[in-house]
Amino acid sequence: MHVNSMTESLPNIHQKVEEQLLIQEARRDIKAFDKLYQRYLSQVVRYLYSRLGNMGDAEDVAAQAFLAAYESFSSFKKEGFFAAWLFAIARNKAVDHLRRNRLFEQLDEVNLADPAVTPEKKLESSQESASISRLISALPDRDQELLRLRYVADLSFPEIAVLLHRRTDAVKKRTYRLLAKIRTQMEVGNE
Fold first, then answer.
1. pLDDT tens across 123-153, in order?
2. What H or E segment, with its residue span, contains residue 1?
3. What is the DSSP string of 103-162?
4. Of 32, 70, 85, 110, which has the fewest Cβ atoms less than 10 A away?
5. Per residue in 169-184, is it b (16+ CB within 10 Å) or e — as a string?
6. How many angstroms separate the CA atoms of 153 and 62, rounded?
7. For residues 103 and 39, which has the higher predicted lDDT (pLDDT)?
8. How much is the pLDDT for 117?
9. What is the pLDDT of residues 69-123, one digit of tens each?
10. How far apart are CA 90 and CA 44, in angstroms?
């Protein structure tokens, strides 16, 4: 194994160990589930917001997802990825919500405000974001979901693989191909 590969995986190893300790603690005392809630709340809400397009709905569905996870925590398997299990619940709750409310799925871009950016650059960036959003929304739902899980929910490739019942290398390869496709379409559009 290359030295850089080893050092790059150390934060992931640390996160998995920390997560396993939180899971063990919650298994001993269900009141400790709150620590898992605190760890994943913002990721789940961001993911649900990208699916539902409304922050209030995202927060409501996140609450439902965490309640369902809390109530069924005893069924969580130790060898699984907690994030994948939790996001599977969140996805199901989002689908239920969309069915009930007949909303359209939409992938929104996350915009970070930078005061040093000029109005011209903001306009250019806004136009580029709109183009990217159009390209993403033209993708099949399964590809949009893959990008949501990776870049909005910030799940790792192994977590996404578990969640989608695919191999990690297949998830990684599909993600990079989608990004290359979007990049190529952006370049063609700019010519």
1. 566 667 777 778 888 899 999 999 989 888 8
2. none
3. PPP--PPP----TTS-HHHHHHHHHHHHHHHHHHHTS-HHHHHHHIIIIIS---HHHHHH
4. 110
5. eebbebbeebeeebee
6. 12
7. 39
8. 56
9. 998 988 887 666 888 899 999 999 998 888 877 534 444 444 444 555 556 665 5
10. 7
Q: How is 57-78 classified by DSSP, letter by letter?
A: HHHHHHHHHHHHHHHTGGG--T
- 58, two tokens: 């995202």
At which residue do the structure tokens 């190529």 appear? 184
Task: Take residue 19 and report the two structure tokens written for it.
Answer: 């997560």
- What is the reported pLDDT for 177? 93
152 CB-near residues (< 8 Å, 6+ apart): 46, 47, 49, 50, 107, 110
120: exposed, middle or buried (Cβ count in 10 Å: 0-12, 13-18, 19+): exposed
| Token pair of 152 as six digits | 């909005």
Per-residue pLDDT at 79:
63
| Residue with token string 């191999």 | 167
